[in-house]
């Protein structure tokens, strides 16, 4: 059986990371898995047994998801979008998948509706139509107008067989962020959260007892990194902070290193063994994206979340507010972010492990395979 996942990450790389974790679970189950990625290349993300197909990349203009930029920083014009549409449908025609998964669409990525609908139209024209599922995280950006809900429902009814919701409804139900209609509710399949397996317990000592900071690249993370570096400089002796920045932020990283002594502050590019470092950390500081939050919960690391809230973004603030009901988790809004405030929030969670989630809640990738294979068996009856 062949799976094709269509995903485009526009700001951070979380959408691609989740899609690759899902893809790897299907590969482990014996599927042939192909991922069409339309965001910027993210070489630090890997998935064993998965073929990654890079489309002409796009990125958002900061938090403005209606303005798409090409690899050279130009606004994407009609020709650039048509090139992507053709590449995506040509790939599907060559691969002939048995299962198509669209990540986020039709609940989001409206700026790319043309290419997703071209792909879905191709699927609908097949003599033997593949199973088609949407894949969404726990929290969605709420629709700005009621018409968006009706449009999403219409696309689901026309093209889709179901929606994989990568959450546990007992922790974060989808209706916490999206106004579900009865039709939508009937199409949902909760999988649990999609997280990689825990790193080996004997995986080294580097980073043990440190405060580990991740916050994304470019302007998304700069405020967090700067305040964390200043907090490291002013903090108690013996506490070491490790800041993992995006690979393209080398010049900014050089400036951070000058803010605190080397014995208190390490600044380096994000690493493939991030989760191993996280498992040994005394605490984590960072944004509250899906993957970051779930890594902290799954590994039981005390955490201070500083949700990204630029523009009309509400996803991370919503998630942080829900998770902060658990011990060992604090939320610091960016408007209140200072070295003193971060230090106080950190002291409030150190030594308090977050309440663990049930194993089934963290098996979203494997559960997704089981759900899909059940749906395919039912389809054959």
UniProtKB/TrEMBL annotation:
Keywords: Plasmid, Transferase. This is Glycosyltransferase. InterPro entries: Glyco_trans_28_C (IPR007235). It comes from Azospirillum thermophilum. One of its GO terms (molecular function) is hexosyltransferase activity. It comes from the Bacteria. Transmembrane segments: none annotated. Residues 241-359 form the Glycosyl transferase family 28 C-terminal domain. Pfam families: Glyco_tran_28_C.
């Amino acid at each position: 059986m062949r799976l094709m996942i269509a995903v485009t990450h526009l700001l951070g790389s979380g959408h691609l990371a989740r899609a690759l974790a899902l893809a790897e679970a299907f590969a482990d189950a014996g599927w042939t898995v192909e991922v069409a990625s339309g965001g910027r290349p993210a070489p630090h993300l890997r998935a064993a047994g998965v073929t990654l197909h890079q489309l002409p990349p796009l990125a958002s203009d900061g938090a403005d998801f209606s303005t798409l930029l090409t690899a050279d920083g130009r606004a994407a014009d009609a020709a650039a979008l048509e090139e992507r549409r053709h590449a995506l449908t040509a790939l599907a025609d060559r691969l002939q998948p048995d299962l198509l998964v669209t990540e986020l669409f039709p609940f989001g990525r409206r700026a790319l509706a043309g290419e997703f609908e071209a792909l879905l139209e191709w699927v609908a024209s097949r003599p033997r139509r593949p199973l088609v599922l949407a894949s969404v995280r726990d929290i969605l950006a709420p629709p700005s107008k009621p018409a968006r809900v009706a449009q999403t429902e219409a696309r689901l009814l026309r093209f889709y067989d179901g929606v994989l919701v990568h959450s546990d409804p007992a922790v974060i139900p989808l209706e916490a962020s999206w106004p579900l209609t009865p039709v939508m509710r009937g199409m949902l399949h909760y999988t649990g959260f999609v997280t990689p397996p825990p790193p080996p317990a004997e995986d080294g000592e580097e980073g043990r007892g440190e405060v580990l900071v991740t916050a994304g690249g470019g302007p998304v993370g700069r405020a967090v990194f700067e305040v964390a570096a200043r907090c490291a400089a002013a903090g108690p002796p013996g506490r070491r902070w490790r800041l993992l920045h995006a690979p393209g932020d080398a010049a900014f990283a050089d400036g951070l290193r000058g803010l605190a002594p080397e014995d208190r502050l390490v600044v380096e590019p994000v690493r493939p063994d991030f989760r191993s470092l996280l498992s040994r950390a005394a605490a984590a500081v960072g944004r509250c994206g899906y993957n970051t939050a779930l890594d902290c919960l799954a590994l039981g690391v005390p955490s201070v979340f500083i949700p990204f809230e630029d523009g009309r973004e509400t996803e991370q603030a919503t998630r942080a507010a829900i998770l902060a009901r658990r011990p060992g988790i604090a939320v610091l809004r960016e408007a209140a972010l200072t070295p003193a405030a971060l230090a106080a929030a950190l002291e409030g969670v150190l030594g308090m492990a977050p309440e663990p989630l049930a194993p089934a809640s963290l098996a979203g990738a494997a559960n997704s395979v089981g759900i899909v294979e059940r749906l395919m068996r039912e389809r054959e009856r």
